[in-house]
Fold this protein.
Amino acid sequence: MDNDIGELAQAARDASGSEAVLKALLRAARETADPAQIVGFLSELAPAAYKSEDARLRVADFLIEFGAAADALDWAAGDTPKALVLRARATLVDGDRAAAARHYRAALASDASVRDAALDAEFAVAQAHGGGAEIFDLGGRRIETPRPAATPAPGDRERVTFADVGGHEDVKAQIRRRIVHPFARPALFQRFRKKAGGGVLMFGPPGCGKTLLARATAGECAARFVPIHIPEILDMYIGQSEKRLAAAFEQARRSRPTVLFIDEIEALAARRKYSSENAQSTLVSTFLSEMDGISASNEGVLVLAATNVPWAIDPAFRRPGRFDRVVFVPPPDEAARRAILRLHLADRPRAGDVDIEAIAARTSGFSGADIAGLVDAAVELAIEDSMRDDTIAPLTAAHFRSTLTAMRPSTLEWLSSARNYAKYANQGGLYDEVAAFLDKHAR
Ligand SMILES: Nc1ncnc2c1ncn2[C@@H]1O[C@H](COP(=O)(O)OP(=O)(O)O)[C@@H](O)[C@H]1O
Ligand SMILES: [Mg+2]
């Protein structure tokens, strides 16, 4: 079966431009267990060789479904309404909402019949205030107004997206492939017999964007974000914690589509030797049965959790259907630090001598939160200067020089603990990604 696909791929390369062969390859691709391999084959073909737009767009559609948005753009060239719809979908997968809105608007302007349900839903979200299910009028201009950074009112769909998270390109790609796509297209994943259920556990050093990524994942799925902070759920009265927890799950189910986010899950999922008493065991079983219920039946609720101490998590939580997918959120590398700096410096008055590249180079080991703190400290200095001189004194390189001397990277301690776990207690490869990260960044 997979041999057939290899042969078809070879044939498609040899008979470049043959639509019959391309069609056969795509048909086989729909049945294969390894769509990633097909994405690879397709990227070796030349879109321009195929005369029929229909054939090209079919490839684009396939590529978008499997997250290869950049490749899909090559196959969806041209300005016909159908091509524009596919480009809108591809740019959306890529995280560029504004461009996606532009393409979609252009497509609808020339042919209103090319409406795409997913894009309608996506852009309806931009004005879902007040619960109106009206489809957004794409002739309006509100689509492109910047998203407010403020936390949306409960009931609103999440607006923070991956565009608000600096760097972490690998993590974003993983989340797109493993979470956003299955979430957006349950039927497709069912056809490939690929499970979308179960939760995703993010781990990594504090301050590196787990909470931010969880929120942005909800935004990418155009879902509501329901965070649960376990320490706040814990209550000294018997049965109260369970009630609160069950209520949170109930709220998540009622407001589907929802990303339910459990922060500091170690407070709940601690291994026996870490937890104080058995007192929490009914809470744990309440949690696990809610979780099992969700992965068994409730499409449209995605459970994400985060922890800084993955080694304290009871392995029972990682059984299939529970948190069977684990994502490492590493400290930002240099490129990511540049991106984070840019995000945090946007809209702030700044002099030409502030050198983002140089600051990024000097902040190895800093978490995203450290960088946010660094910018905050520099901003305080600039405000002091402004008050003293009664002007707007912009942020300068000098402000950053003096704040940088006072700051220490906060992720190193975590990384050295993680190094030990990767070496001596690598539970079924749980820390492989950590080990790879440490190898890459070993000094
Ligand atoms: N990749 C990032 N891009 C932009 N800001 C970041 C990033 N990582 C961290 N931050 C900043 O640090 C703060 C804390 O991050 P958070 O997501 O709460 O970290 P964690 O949950 O991993 O402890 C965020 O609110 C944000 O201001
Ligand atoms: Mg957090």
Remarks:
- Residues 162-328 form a domain with the Rossmann fold fold (CATH 3.40.50.300).
- The chain has four domains: 2-144, 162-328, 334-406, 412-441.
- The pocket of adenosine-5'-diphosphate (ligand 1) is lined by residues 165-168, 206-212, 306, 332, 340, 343, 368-369, 372 (CB under 6 Å).
